[in-house]
Design a protein that fits this description.
Layout: H1 13-21, E1 29-32, E2 51-54, E3 58-62, E4 83-90, H2 93-101, E5 107-111, E6 114-116, E7 121-122, H3 137-143, E8 146-150, E9 162-163, E10 178-180, E11 184-187, E12 196-200, H4 206-211
Parallel strand pairs: 1-2, 1-5, 5-8, 6-9, 8-10
Antiparallel strand pairs: 2-3, 3-4, 6-7, 10-11, 11-12
Length: about 220
């Protein structure tokens, strides 16, 4: 059996989102990227006030609507139907990006294709594949106070995604503060420090994380 065939328990996509939600703090303004990060909205701790912001012009995003209750006019930046709250406000993209670029968003949870050991992020395109554009990703990693990347630990073909240097086009250099994968959590206190393995998913060993990670990190 090869390393890539090793069976693990680890976290599901929803459990990864729940782990990311543990980083939320009362009063935070938060932007959620497409994919797994959108699930974070369903795991905001009870009693905590967190305001979700979407770069397409919405502040105060509620959880995903139940089947049959969707409003096609209410969508997030990933074009998924969402719900509104009593305090929801709407505005144009210029105002939305002024919030992001002005440093008014406390936390962004984004997906990732690759993260380097230096904190570089690649999450917007694969050469040779048709894409719709970068969207707000470059602005988010440059303007938001803390960046968490939630992603599978390895690609579909088993290649590590936490690597020494990104091979795909970059979204930003030295921007990632925390990485949450289906196997583990890595964190660093500042952008001059290396990432440290701070948590293992259930059923996952340190040895397995080392086998499936080519980036340098501390334990």
């Amino acid at each position: 059996m090869t390393t890539h065939d090793t069976l693990t328990e680890g976290w599901t996509r929803d459990q990864m989102a729940a782990r990311a939600a543990k980083e939320l703090r009362d009063g935070f303004y938060v932007n959620l990227g497409i994919g797994i990060p959108t699930l974070v909205a369903n795991h905001v701790p009870e009693g905590m006030t967190v305001t979700l912001q979407s770069e397409n012009g919405m502040l105060g995003i509620g959880p995903f609507p139940f089947a049959g209750e969707e409003d096609p006019d209410l969508i997030n930046a990933g074009k998924q139907t969402i719900s509104q709250l009593p305090q929801t406000s709407y505005f144009d993209s210029a105002q939305s990006f002024a919030m992001i670029r002005g440093g008014h968003i406390d936390l962004a949870v984004l997906g990732g294709m690759e993260v380097s050991e230096k904190g570089d992020l690649a999450n917007w395109m694969v050469p040779g594949k048709m894409i719709k554009g970068m969207g707000g990703a470059m602005d988010l990693v440059a303007g938001v106070k803390k960046i968490i990347v939630v992603m599978e630990h390895v690609s579909k073909n088993g290649d590590p995604k936490f690597i020494p240097a990104c091979m795909l086009p970059l979204t930003g250099r030295n921007v990632v503060d925390m990485i949450i994968t289906d196997l583990a959590v890595f964190q660093r206190p500042d952008h001059d420090s290396p990432f440290k393995l701070v948590e293992l998913a259930p059923g996952v060993s340190r040895e397995e994380v080392r086998e499936k990670t080519t980036a340098a990190y501390t334990e």
